[in-house]
Specification:
Strand order of the largest sheet: 1-2
Strand content: under 5%
Low-confidence stretches: none
Number of strands: 2
Number of helices: 5
Shape: globular
Largest sheet: 2 strands, antiparallel
Length: 121
């Protein structure tokens, strides 16, 4: 039952990410920080959104990943990274959107954070 619950949550989360990914011209270029540490706020949005995605993916696949073996974690991690890359590539086909390597890096860091937290706890 729990696995189905997390699967449904994950599907809705993926759909939410896709909606924001496919919105033409939707962007937040607000900068935060000062001087050398100034960067766009949307990188944080990407990081946290994909950390949530990673955590939901892990929760959905918990019975497979529970032994924490590298054999099971690497394919799951690569599948999540592939999703992040795909969402960035989709933006090439959306008006006023483009592939941004920094967004992809933020996505990947968020997913990595989720998997690190799984290993830690």
């Amino acid at each position: 039952m729990k696995k189905n619950y997390f699967r449904i949550l994950l599907i809705f989360y993926i759909l939410t990410i896709l909606v924001f990914t496919l919105m033409p011209g939707w962007s937040t270029n607000k900068k935060i920080g000062h001087g050398f540490f100034e960067f766009r706020a949307d990188y944080w949005y990407h990081l946290f959104a994909y950390a949530g995605f990673g955590l939901l993916f892990i929760a959905w696949q918990m019975n497979v990943l529970i032994d924490k073996s590298v054999r099971n974690l690497i394919p799951a991690f690569m599948l999540c990274i592939s999703f992040a890359f795909s969402t960035e590539m989709l933006q090439l086909f959306v008006p006023d959107r483009s592939f941004n390597i920094k967004d992809f890096i933020s996505n990947s860091i968020g997913i990595g954070f989720a998997f690190f937290m799984f290993l830690l706890f």
